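Before a colleague's protein record goes any further, I have to sign it off. My question to you is simply how this chain folds and whether the C-alpha cells agree. I do not need a full report, just your reasoning and any doubts. This is what I was given:
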Amino acid sequence: MKLHINGEEVSLPDSITRLDEVLRHYNLEQKMIIIEYNRKVLNKQEYGMTRMEEGDSIEIVQFVGGG
C-alpha cells in the first residue's frame, strides 16, 4: 500500500491496514505522538479503528525533550 507519511510517499506491506499497525511498523507505538490522518487530528483510541486506503496522508508529530 502506498501512503504519504510526513510528506513522503512510502510503500508499506499490504498486511498493514490500520493506523496502529503503521505505528508498530515504525516502532512508534510507545512514543508520545500526535497523528493527523487525512487532515484530521485523531485521538489515540482511534488508531486501532482507523483503516487506511491507498494514497491516504498521515502526519506524525513526535514530542522530544531538550533545552
Remarks:
- Strands lie at 2-5, 8-11, 33-37, 40-41, 57-62.
- The radius of gyration is 12 Å.
- The helical segments are 19-25.
- The longest strand covers residues 57-62.
